[in-house]
Write a structure and sequence with these properties.
This protein is α+β, with helices and mostly antiparallel strands and 223 residues long. 43% of the residues lie in helices and 11% in strands. It contains ten helices and four strands; from the N terminus they run βαββαβαααααααα. Helix 1 runs antiparallel to helix 2. The chain is globular and about 50 Å long.
Amino acid sequence: MPRTERIDVGGEIYHVINRANGHHTIFQDKEEYQLFESILTDAKQMTNMRILAYSIMPNHWHLLLSPKHDGDLALFMHWLTTTHTRRYHVATKTVGGGSLYQGRYKSFIVDADSYLLTLIKYIERNPVRAKLVRQCENWQWGSAWRRINGDKKQQQLIDASPTPLPHRYRNWINTPEKTEELKTLRSAVNRGVPYGRESWVEKMVQEYHLESTVREPGRPKKQ
Protein backbone atom coordinates (compact mmCIF):
# COMPACT_ATOMS: atom_id res chain seq x y z
CA MET A 1 0.00 0.00 0.00
CA PRO A 2 1.37 3.49 -0.87
CA ARG A 3 2.62 5.62 1.98
CA THR A 4 -0.16 7.87 3.29
CA GLU A 5 0.21 11.53 2.37
CA ARG A 6 0.92 13.85 5.27
CA ILE A 7 -1.78 16.53 5.69
CA ASP A 8 -1.01 19.55 7.87
CA VAL A 9 -3.76 22.08 7.29
CA GLY A 10 -5.12 24.42 9.94
CA GLY A 11 -8.79 24.16 10.82
CA GLU A 12 -9.01 20.39 10.30
CA ILE A 13 -9.28 17.75 13.04
CA TYR A 14 -6.64 15.00 13.28
CA HIS A 15 -6.45 11.67 15.05
CA VAL A 16 -2.77 11.10 15.83
CA ILE A 17 -1.23 7.84 17.06
CA ASN A 18 2.27 6.71 17.90
CA ARG A 19 3.57 3.48 19.40
CA ALA A 20 6.66 2.39 21.25
CA ASN A 21 9.49 0.92 19.25
CA GLY A 22 9.00 -2.85 19.21
CA HIS A 23 5.72 -2.41 21.13
CA HIS A 24 7.74 -2.13 24.34
CA THR A 25 6.17 -0.48 27.39
CA ILE A 26 6.95 3.23 27.62
CA PHE A 27 4.82 4.18 30.62
CA GLN A 28 5.44 1.95 33.61
CA ASP A 29 4.73 4.23 36.57
CA LYS A 30 2.98 7.42 37.56
CA GLU A 31 6.06 9.57 37.01
CA GLU A 32 6.41 8.48 33.37
CA TYR A 33 2.77 9.27 32.59
CA GLN A 34 3.11 12.63 34.33
CA LEU A 35 6.25 13.40 32.34
CA PHE A 36 4.41 12.92 29.06
CA GLU A 37 1.42 14.99 30.20
CA SER A 38 3.69 17.85 31.26
CA ILE A 39 5.36 17.81 27.83
CA LEU A 40 1.94 17.64 26.19
CA THR A 41 0.92 20.74 28.15
CA ASP A 42 4.08 22.59 27.10
CA ALA A 43 3.59 21.65 23.45
CA LYS A 44 0.00 22.92 23.58
CA GLN A 45 1.10 26.26 25.00
CA MET A 46 3.94 26.66 22.49
CA THR A 47 1.79 26.07 19.41
CA ASN A 48 -1.67 27.10 20.66
CA MET A 49 -2.83 23.60 19.75
CA ARG A 50 -6.39 22.55 20.53
CA ILE A 51 -6.50 19.13 22.21
CA LEU A 52 -9.98 17.62 21.95
CA ALA A 53 -9.26 14.22 23.50
CA TYR A 54 -6.35 11.95 24.39
CA SER A 55 -5.46 8.64 25.97
CA ILE A 56 -2.01 7.53 27.08
CA MET A 57 -1.68 3.75 27.08
CA PRO A 58 1.30 1.71 28.37
CA ASN A 59 2.88 1.32 24.91
CA HIS A 60 1.12 3.91 22.73
CA TRP A 61 -1.01 7.02 22.79
CA HIS A 62 -3.89 8.66 20.93
CA LEU A 63 -4.38 12.41 20.45
CA LEU A 64 -7.29 14.23 18.84
CA LEU A 65 -5.94 17.59 17.69
CA SER A 66 -7.24 20.66 15.91
CA PRO A 67 -4.44 23.04 14.83
CA LYS A 68 -5.33 26.62 14.02
CA HIS A 69 -2.78 27.23 11.26
CA ASP A 70 -1.09 25.31 8.45
CA GLY A 71 2.07 23.61 9.68
CA ASP A 72 1.10 23.70 13.36
CA LEU A 73 0.51 19.93 13.53
CA ALA A 74 4.03 19.08 12.37
CA LEU A 75 5.54 21.66 14.73
CA PHE A 76 3.53 20.36 17.69
CA MET A 77 4.26 16.70 16.98
CA HIS A 78 7.98 17.23 16.33
CA TRP A 79 8.46 19.07 19.60
CA LEU A 80 6.29 16.62 21.55
CA THR A 81 7.98 13.43 20.36
CA THR A 82 11.58 14.67 20.31
CA THR A 83 11.28 16.32 23.72
CA HIS A 84 9.59 13.27 25.21
CA THR A 85 12.24 10.95 23.76
CA ARG A 86 15.07 13.06 25.15
CA ARG A 87 13.56 13.53 28.63
CA TYR A 88 12.46 9.89 28.83
CA HIS A 89 16.00 8.65 28.20
CA VAL A 90 17.39 11.09 30.77
CA ALA A 91 14.80 10.09 33.39
CA THR A 92 15.29 6.36 32.82
CA LYS A 93 19.09 6.61 32.43
CA THR A 94 18.91 5.08 28.94
CA VAL A 95 20.58 7.85 26.94
CA GLY A 96 21.94 6.32 23.75
CA GLY A 97 19.53 3.42 24.02
CA GLY A 98 17.95 3.94 20.61
CA SER A 99 14.59 5.08 19.31
CA LEU A 100 11.71 5.36 21.74
CA TYR A 101 9.02 5.34 19.04
CA GLN A 102 8.52 2.91 16.18
CA GLY A 103 8.75 5.66 13.58
CA ARG A 104 6.81 8.65 12.35
CA TYR A 105 3.43 9.21 13.95
CA LYS A 106 0.24 8.25 12.09
CA SER A 107 -2.39 10.91 11.53
CA PHE A 108 -5.63 11.21 9.61
CA ILE A 109 -8.30 13.86 9.31
CA VAL A 110 -11.72 13.45 10.87
CA ASP A 111 -15.15 14.74 9.91
CA ALA A 112 -17.24 16.59 12.50
CA ASP A 113 -20.69 15.73 13.85
CA SER A 114 -21.28 12.09 14.78
CA TYR A 115 -17.94 10.92 13.39
CA LEU A 116 -16.02 13.22 15.71
CA LEU A 117 -18.04 12.04 18.70
CA THR A 118 -17.48 8.40 17.72
CA LEU A 119 -13.74 9.03 17.64
CA ILE A 120 -13.72 10.82 21.01
CA LYS A 121 -15.49 7.81 22.51
CA TYR A 122 -13.06 5.43 20.78
CA ILE A 123 -10.05 7.27 22.19
CA GLU A 124 -11.41 7.69 25.70
CA ARG A 125 -12.60 4.07 25.93
CA ASN A 126 -9.18 2.64 25.05
CA PRO A 127 -8.28 1.80 28.68
CA VAL A 128 -11.65 0.08 29.17
CA ARG A 129 -11.30 -2.04 26.02
CA ALA A 130 -7.78 -2.95 27.19
CA LYS A 131 -9.27 -3.98 30.57
CA LEU A 132 -7.06 -1.56 32.49
CA VAL A 133 -10.09 -0.01 34.20
CA ARG A 134 -13.84 -0.64 34.25
CA GLN A 135 -14.95 2.98 33.81
CA CYS A 136 -13.36 5.51 31.45
CA GLU A 137 -13.05 8.20 34.12
CA ASN A 138 -10.96 5.84 36.29
CA TRP A 139 -8.02 5.96 33.87
CA GLN A 140 -6.10 8.99 35.08
CA TRP A 141 -4.01 9.36 31.94
CA GLY A 142 -6.69 10.50 29.54
CA SER A 143 -9.20 13.21 28.76
CA ALA A 144 -12.21 11.36 30.23
CA TRP A 145 -10.59 11.49 33.68
CA ARG A 146 -9.81 15.19 33.27
CA ARG A 147 -13.33 16.04 32.11
CA ILE A 148 -15.00 14.23 35.04
CA ASN A 149 -12.48 14.18 37.89
CA GLY A 150 -10.02 16.95 37.06
CA ASP A 151 -9.95 20.33 38.76
CA LYS A 152 -10.24 23.56 36.77
CA LYS A 153 -6.50 23.71 36.03
CA GLN A 154 -6.34 20.08 34.91
CA GLN A 155 -9.34 20.55 32.64
CA GLN A 156 -7.59 23.41 30.84
CA LEU A 157 -5.54 20.89 28.86
CA ILE A 158 -8.72 19.82 27.01
CA ASP A 159 -10.47 22.10 24.53
CA ALA A 160 -14.19 22.13 23.81
CA SER A 161 -15.31 19.80 21.03
CA PRO A 162 -16.61 21.57 17.87
CA THR A 163 -19.47 19.08 18.10
CA PRO A 164 -20.86 19.32 21.65
CA LEU A 165 -20.51 16.23 23.80
CA PRO A 166 -23.74 14.47 24.84
CA HIS A 167 -25.51 16.02 27.83
CA ARG A 168 -25.16 12.82 29.89
CA TYR A 169 -21.49 12.52 29.03
CA ARG A 170 -20.51 10.06 31.78
CA ASN A 171 -23.20 7.57 30.76
CA TRP A 172 -22.44 8.04 27.07
CA ILE A 173 -18.69 7.50 27.38
CA ASN A 174 -19.22 4.32 29.41
CA THR A 175 -21.61 2.82 26.86
CA PRO A 176 -19.70 0.46 24.51
CA GLU A 177 -19.51 1.30 20.83
CA LYS A 178 -21.63 -0.57 18.32
CA THR A 179 -19.69 -3.41 16.66
CA GLU A 180 -20.07 -2.10 13.09
CA GLU A 181 -19.21 1.42 14.17
CA LEU A 182 -16.04 0.20 15.88
CA LYS A 183 -15.09 -1.94 12.87
CA THR A 184 -15.40 1.00 10.47
CA LEU A 185 -13.39 3.29 12.70
CA ARG A 186 -10.64 0.72 13.23
CA SER A 187 -10.40 0.28 9.48
CA ALA A 188 -9.71 4.00 9.14
CA VAL A 189 -7.21 3.88 12.00
CA ASN A 190 -5.32 0.90 10.57
CA ARG A 191 -5.12 2.44 7.11
CA GLY A 192 -4.58 6.01 8.29
CA VAL A 193 -7.28 7.47 6.04
CA PRO A 194 -9.97 10.17 6.46
CA TYR A 195 -12.88 9.17 8.67
CA GLY A 196 -16.28 10.68 7.94
CA ARG A 197 -19.27 10.94 5.62
CA GLU A 198 -18.74 9.62 2.11
CA SER A 199 -19.32 13.04 0.55
CA TRP A 200 -16.80 14.57 2.96
CA VAL A 201 -14.25 11.83 2.27
CA GLU A 202 -14.61 12.48 -1.46
CA LYS A 203 -13.99 16.17 -0.83
CA MET A 204 -10.80 15.32 1.08
CA VAL A 205 -9.73 13.04 -1.77
CA GLN A 206 -10.04 15.89 -4.25
CA GLU A 207 -8.65 18.62 -2.03
CA TYR A 208 -5.62 16.75 -0.69
CA HIS A 209 -5.02 14.30 -3.57
CA LEU A 210 -5.57 11.19 -1.46
CA GLU A 211 -6.98 8.86 -4.13
CA SER A 212 -4.35 6.19 -3.58
CA THR A 213 -5.02 6.02 0.16
CA VAL A 214 -8.80 6.09 0.50
CA ARG A 215 -10.22 4.26 -2.49
CA GLU A 216 -10.09 0.83 -0.93
CA PRO A 217 -12.71 -1.55 0.50
CA GLY A 218 -13.99 -0.62 3.94
CA ARG A 219 -14.36 3.11 3.50
CA PRO A 220 -17.07 4.53 5.82
CA LYS A 221 -20.52 4.15 4.29
CA LYS A 222 -22.78 7.06 3.46
CA GLN A 223 -25.12 7.98 6.32
